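Example 287.
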Amino acid sequence: MTQLQNPTPLAAPDQANKSLAPLPKGGNSAADQVKVTAVTHWTDKLFSFQTNRPPSFRFQSGEFAMIGLADNDGKAITRAYSIASPHWDDHLEFYSIIVPDGPLTSRLRHIQIGDDIILRPKTTGTLNLARLRDGKRLYLLATGTGFAPFASLIRDPETYERFDEVILVHGCRTIAELGYSQKIVADSRAHPLIGEMVTAQLHYVPSVTRENFTQTGRITTLLADGKLASSLSLPPLDADFDRIMICGSIGLNQDIAAQLLAKNFQEGNLSSPGDYVIERAFVGDGI
Ligand code: FAD
Ligand code: A2P
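Predicted structure in complex with flavin-adenine dinucleotide:
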């Protein structure tokens, strides 16, 4: 990983010397701006960053907000971002892809400590514990940056109060793409507030599809052939006891939902909590 306190070798040459445009005047109140306090690049396509947290900014673990930067004309470019930090933390954290020509991330990739970012105050999302019925086990299934909302939920004590066991599966193409989730899980296990719960109740299953690794295969396959549950000595998925949250590409989300529907799992919402909830990690086919 590369801390941005030092010049990053990962910035594209064409963008590396462009300074970020100032935030738009007029359209953003001070309450819409936060300052970057840390940046870590995990691969040439993935980075995480932290900002200060405005005292009035409230959210529930697993939700997303609109964040952004100004373009060269001073117009705000904002996108949905899951908040990766838990609701109790005094800073905010985000985990980001870099889309080479993406309107936001081709700029966001260059942020440094001290830069201002737009943060809209409204938060929302479906990956919410309140949308799930009580159960024994909570499965959190993510690919790529879909891990971000779960980085929040696995650090929320309520997750461990509601469920005896929490099974976090993070699927990526390569081992390097697991760097962020590996660090968050390791830090959470050692954390003075939540470490005991995380160590006792969280199973972390990183899986890679395009390299050799201790665990390989798509999440859909690990679920369908029962290997996921059996490798953890857990019973097969059962709608009476298991609750599921899914966050990945549209293809992954649809494929898992189809498996769950075939096992009589019901999708949950706020008025009628259910057995599983789904959120897109992004819109489109992915990069
Ligand atoms: P865009 O014009 O927004 O995207 C261009 C294309 O890049 C998309 O059509 C898609 O094909 C691909 N793409 C975009 N985002 C991703 C991604 N995350 N993974 C793989 N391919 C992608 N992105 C994050 O990096 N972290 C998050 O926590 C996050 N949370 C989101 C939560 C929700 C509910 C939604 C709907 C999207 C979320 N996104 C997240 C995606 C994010 O909103 C932007 O699309 C992304 O930051 C790229 O912005 P852009 O302007 O550079 O490119
Ligand atoms: P694979 O390498 O077999 O395509 P991406 O970076 O394309 O979003 O993929 C992230 C991870 O999600 C990869 O391991 C990829 O596996 C996996 N994946 C992509 N689509 C699906 C799907 N429909 N079902 C299950 N896993 C998927």
